[in-house]
Amino acid sequence: MTEAVIFDLDGVIVDSEQVWDEVREQYTLESGGRYSETATRAMMGMSSTEWSTYMAEELALPGTPEEINAAIVERMLVRYGETPPLIEGAADVVRTIAESLPVAIASSSNPELIEVVLERAGIRELFRAVVSSQEVPRGKPAPDVYLAAAQRLGVDAAGCVAVEDSSNGLRAAVAAGMAVIAVPNPHYPPAEDALATAAATVATVGDVTPELVERARAANAASIQPRRSS
Prior knowledge:
Elements: E1 4-7, H1 17-30, H2 37-43, H3 48-57, H4 65-80, H5 90-98, E2 103-107, H6 111-121, E3 127-132, H7 144-153, E4 160-164, H8 167-175, E5 179-182, H9 192-195, E6 200-201, H10 210-229
Parallel strand pairs: 1-2, 1-4, 2-3, 4-5, 5-6
């Protein structure tokens, strides 16, 4: 039996990966730094400490990582405003899953941005744990944020199913020992090798059902059984 479902935020509940990219690129260019598609891919999944340090060191931005982080988050909050770009069907999926299983968030977003999205979506109270990679030593693709979410829920990570959209997110959840349902991000599709690790793949988050969650966990358990017994 599945013990819990852990959702990513950006690209799963809120359509924000390209918003992050636009905000970071604009800020970089306005500040006299250099930006590229390589930077976009590199920062996906990073914690706020990691991406702000990357921007300071690799994109040649003035200011400390703390100052860069604060400036980017301020701009993201302005972009979100009263109506963050919620993904159609995501809130309904969370409500349905939460009727039978504990649910959590494991996100690379800053805590204040996570709270804004969940409150605006009307689903904050459904989540028994909300973890930002800002709170753990390493961002995705390291498993830290997923392991922390499972720990806060009081469940075994191997009994959890994660819902993810990006290469680094998929890798993080798999590294934590979780079954993963992939919802490939249309703006930044995951790499084929990362997508191949998913126990199931759907076109939209609205296709995630309790039945699919259980099938994904069972498929993942079956795939690792030979390694455990060898």
